[in-house]
């Protein structure tokens, strides 16, 4: 499964400045693992020491917040858009 | 007069989110941005998330140059708006001379009639009525602050994601300062809020989705070339914007005669306001402007959007997002970014987080209007309703000095009290007047 991942500004140092990169995986966990393979260091920014999504990271698969789905086990269908967004805005 | 500290001139970060770069940031006592999660520090700039852990960045200050009594005199001699507290805010020393909406110094109303109805001791209950701000909500405080940061960082477009009140505040501030404004709101907001945002002449865009969808869109726009040069007051200017809420704490204490209240009831949307009120109180204590004593902060939510209240009652320290469904739309943030900090503060201070349903919100709006002549928007109904519930539950002590926040004007949410109307319709005659039982 190939998906398109939107990278927030603060992680673009890991993607050579690219705002979007392709990644492989049938779940979000697999997509993040694949991102790490090609952009070393990025997983540690998105996941905490226990391997869970950091609490100030929001991830959307297409338009769905993965916290309303299956978290890291959320399916990432072929061609899906994955957005990683700092959860700091609002109010 | 106390001198501004020297730690205020730092380089804006070159990796700032889609921002014009600037070589120096004259933001008064602000010294750096510090991650609330991991403590990582970066220079002042239009950035909002920690590059190490995604945690929220907030302003770190250097107040070391201040003498307490000189600072108190300087504040008391200042203008009757938030800039009287400029020495404690991330703004240039000459902020009061720049075109801005100059909010604040709103009334702290001693609410003895409401106290009587709620069973609170006379003289102990106050309503901090922020409907008196230029665009009739507390959002003017945070926007005025963000506007100054936008000016320093060289932005020319002011933007935001909004549940309505913020949209109006941004539109007004941009108009006054000569900025372009383009703001984003959920497409189904109350008509009053749409009009009150659109009238200032900026661009107002409805997004098909709820507030969290709007927020997500704005966060993505910031990282896109289309958003280049835009200052989103509650996203890339958020560390500065959020500090505006500290002025509520400063004003309450100064209006109480430089004393801390014992208890505060504060609404929760993102949770930012509550956390910054706590920060403001702590700063006043550390600066010696108030005597240190315990205070309790209570958070108030609407039942239809109560992720923080649910987490509090369940004993959790993380907040599970909800899909909002409440008439209190200005508080309808289902994924509140500062929720975990609200939980920390409520527990640390011995407060609580409570919620009320929409019917209770409407009843509380009417109660406040009937007893004190204050017409609150739904968020004010939430705080008054929660205060009532907390008293009934024995969590809020009726013998202590308590401040309940009203953060917006009821004219913005007329739909909530739409059933309120004529007592009677009569012919223009005394007989008809008497027949209606009015005489």
UniProtKB/TrEMBL annotation, chain A:
Record organism: Streptomyces flaveus
PANTHER family: SULFUR CARRIER PROTEIN CYSO (PTHR38031:SF1), SULFUR CARRIER PROTEIN SLR0821-RELATED (PTHR38031)
Domain of life: Bacteria
A Pfam family matched in the record: ThiS
Protein name: Molybdopterin synthase sulfur carrier subunit
From TrEMBL, chain B:
Stored CDD domains: Thr-synth_1 (cd01563)
GO molecular function: L-serine ammonia-lyase activity; threonine deaminase activity; threonine synthase activity
Domain of life: Bacteria
Region (Disordered), start-end ranges: 1-25
Pfam families assigned to the protein according to its UniProt record, in alphabetical order: PALP
Cofactor: pyridoxal 5'-phosphate
In-chain residues carrying the UniProt-annotated modification N6-(pyridoxal phosphate)lysine: 139
Alphabetic keyword roster: Lyase, Pyridoxal phosphate
Protein name: Threonine synthase
């Amino acid at each position: 499964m190939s998906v398109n991942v939107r990278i927030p500004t603060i992680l673009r140092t890991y993607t050579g400045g690219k705002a979007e990169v392709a990644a492989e995986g049938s779940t979000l966990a697999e997509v993040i693992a694949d991102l790490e393979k090609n952009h070393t260091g990025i997983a540690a920014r998105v996941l905490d020491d226990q391997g869970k999504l950091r609490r100030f990271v929001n991830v959307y698969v297409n338009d769905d917040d993965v916290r309303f789905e299956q978290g890291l086990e959320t399916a990432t269908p072929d061609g899906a858009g994955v957005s990683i967004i700092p959860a700091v805005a609002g109010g | 007069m106390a001198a501004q500290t020297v730690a205020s001139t730092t380089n804006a970060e070159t990796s700032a989110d889609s921002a014009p770069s600037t070589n120096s940031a004259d933001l008064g006592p602000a010294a750096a941005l510090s991650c609330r999660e991991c403590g990582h520090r970066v220079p002042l700039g239009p950035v909002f998330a920690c590059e190490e852990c995604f945690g929220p960045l907030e302003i770190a200050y250097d107040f070391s140059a201040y003498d307490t009594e000189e600072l108190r005199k300087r504040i008391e001699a200042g203008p009757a708006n938030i800039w009287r507290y400029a020495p404690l805010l991330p703004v240039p020393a000459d902020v009061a001379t720049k075109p801005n909406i100059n909010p604040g110094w709103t009334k702290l109303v001693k609410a003895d009639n409401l106290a009587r109805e709620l069973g609170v001791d006379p003289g102990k209950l106050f309503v901090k009525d922020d409907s008196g701000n230029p665009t009739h909500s507390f959002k003017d405080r945070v926007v005025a602050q963000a506007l100054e940061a936008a000016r320093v960082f060289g932005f020319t477009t002011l933007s935001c994601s909004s549940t309505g009140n913020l949209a109006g505040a941004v539109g007004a501030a941009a108009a006054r300062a000569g900025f372009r404004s383009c703001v984003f709101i959920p497409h189904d907001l109350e008509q009053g809020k749409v009009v009150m945002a659109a009238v200032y002449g900026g661009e107002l865009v409805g997004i098909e989705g709820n507030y969290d969808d709007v927020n997500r869109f704005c966060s993505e726009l910031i990282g896109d070339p289309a958003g280049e040069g835009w200052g989103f007051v509650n996203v890339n200017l958020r560390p500065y914007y959020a500090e505006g809420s500290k002025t509520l704490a400063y004003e309450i204490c100064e209006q109480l005669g430089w004393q801390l209240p014992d208890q505060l009831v504060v609404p929760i949307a993102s949770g930012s306001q509550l956390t910054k009120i706590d920060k403001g109180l702590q700063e006043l204590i550390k600066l010696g402007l108030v005597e240190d004593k315990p205070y309790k902060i209570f958070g108030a939510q609407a039942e239809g959007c109560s992720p923080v209240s649910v987490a509090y009652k369940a004993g959790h320290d993380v907040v599970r997002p909800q899909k909002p469904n409440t008439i209190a739309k200005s508080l309808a943030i289902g994924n509140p970014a500062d929720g975990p900090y609200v939980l920390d503060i409520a527990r640390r201070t011995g407060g609580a987080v409570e919620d009320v349903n929409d019917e209770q919100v409407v009843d509380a709006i009417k109660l406040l209007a009937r007893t004190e002549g204050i017409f609150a928007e739904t968020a004010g109904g939430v705080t008054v309703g929660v205060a009532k519930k907390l008293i009934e539950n024995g969590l809020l002590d009726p013998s202590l000095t308590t401040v309940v926040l009203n953060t917006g004007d009821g004219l913005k949410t007329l739909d909530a009290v739409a059933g309120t109307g004529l007592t009677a319709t009569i012919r223009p005659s005394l007989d008809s007047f008497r027949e209606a039982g009015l005489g």
